[in-house]
Amino acid sequence: MKKIILLLPLFLLLSCYNVERNCAAFKTGKFKFEYKVNGIKKTTFFERNESIEIETFEGKTDTASIRWVNDCEYILRKIHPKNKAEEKAIDMKILTTSKNSYTFEFGMVGLDTKQKGTVTKISD
């Protein structure tokens, strides 16, 4: 009984935590994704509308189709894949949102391996 009483405040605090997810605000616009590869900062810029995402990375532009599963999840598929790996669709899931950014999880469809990142919205 003492354990239940000690854990009760913890459960009350956790139940009050509400993650913000205003995913609809990030369906379209211009975005920036920054990440590190071997300690070197890389930046990808992309523009997205309801059905297409155009990505620019290190001077190269690529286009992918978008299929929205719900307001917070979509599937990306490259329109002109250059190899077998690029033919695979990528599942993108928005986990949390803030005023001008969102945290997301992504991975190839059908695989359990996921990575996380944060995207900043530059403009509508």
From TrEMBL:
Keyword Signal included in the entry's annotation: yes
Keyword line: Signal
Record's signal peptide: 1-21
Lineage: Bacteria, Pseudomonadati, Bacteroidota, Flavobacteriia, Flavobacteriales
Record's protein name: DNA topoisomerase IV
Alphabetized PROSITE patterns for the sequence: PROKAR_LIPOPROTEIN
Taxonomic source organism: Flavobacterium urumqiense
